[in-house]
């Protein structure tokens, strides 16, 4: 009898950083070394790429005025409890968002646009984080929706590992429906002009990190099942020298409105 050859399992696909390739929204493995790779930012190069992308995309979309600034660095980016997340392709940052945590009111952007919402969170502040500074580049290999899904997926896994129970965000009114339908977010604040994005309207929303039943069925597996390692998900705060460096690039606050002279 001829002995059958045992088929070897295919090796796990690895990306440029040696970590496992991400999965697409349909559950298929992302193949090809040029596909976006998701990770928590931890090097100055990561941060420079993220903040440069933010500045460029915000200028292109009218969320920031055209300026000579090469990067968009906000005060909350410098907090040792904030976590920047990046997607890279060919060693270039092509997507980013930031998860903000903190004990100080000033560290949460939502405290300025919807102060009453922030006040309602005070008793749970250690278990709440804010999603902000989202920017995605245009790529031929991945749609904007695909990139958004990958960024928010690793964000959710990191949030759970960090003990976060709820997420809040101030988002473009056009994007609210996706958060509601796919991830079970609730609207918790009316549309208001947001000074930090050139007075474009933003709606406050809130969602649960650990409640699968609130997620749309087709998205549950994507957001709740994964094989990220503890090292991949562990918080990677910005170092002191990097904070000093990026502090010199902070976005200048807008000037106060001119007072009208009486008479």
TrEMBL record:
Q: Which residues form the N-acyl amino acid synthase FeeM catalytic core domain?
A: 50-198
Basic and acidic residues biased stretches: 7-19
**Looking at the record, which segments are called Disordered?**
1-21
Tree of life domain: Bacteria
Q: Where is the signal peptide?
A: none
Q: What is this protein called?
A: N-acyl amino acid synthase FeeM catalytic core domain-containing protein
Q: Which organism is it from?
A: Roseiconus lacunae
């Amino acid at each position: 009898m001829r002995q059958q050859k045992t088929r070897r399992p295919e090796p796990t696909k690895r990306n440029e950083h040696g970590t496992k390739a991400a999965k697409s929204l349909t559950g298929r493995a992302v193949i090809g070394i040029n596909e976006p790779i998701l990770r928590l930012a931890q090097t100055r190069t990561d941060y420079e790429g993220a903040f440069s992308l933010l500045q460029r995309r915000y200028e292109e979309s009218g969320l920031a005025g055209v300026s000579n600034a090469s990067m968009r660095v906000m005060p909350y980016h410098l907090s040792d409890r904030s976590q920047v997340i990046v997607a890279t392709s060919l060693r270039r940052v092509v997507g980013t968002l930031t998860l903000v945590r903190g004990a100080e009111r000033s560290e949460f952007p939502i405290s300025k646009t919807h102060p009453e919402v922030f006040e309602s969170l005070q008793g749970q502040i250690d278990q709440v984080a804010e999603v902000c500074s989202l920017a995605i580049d245009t790529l031929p290999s991945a749609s904007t929706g695909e990139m958004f899904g990958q960024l928010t997926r690793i964000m959710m896994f990191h949030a759970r590992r960090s003990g976060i129970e709820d997420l809040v965000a101030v988002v473009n009114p056009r994007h609210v429906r996706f958060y509601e339908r796919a991830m079970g977010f609730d609207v918790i604040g009316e549309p208001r002009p947001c000074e930090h994005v050139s007075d474009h309207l933003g709606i406050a929303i809130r969602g649960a990190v650990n409640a699968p039943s609130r997620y749309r069925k087709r998205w549950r597996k994507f957001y709740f099942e994964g094989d990220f390692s503890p090292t991949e998900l562990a918080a990677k705060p910005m170092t002191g020298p990097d904070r000093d460096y990026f502090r010199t690039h902070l976005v200048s606050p807008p000037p106060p409105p001119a007072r009208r002279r009486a008479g």
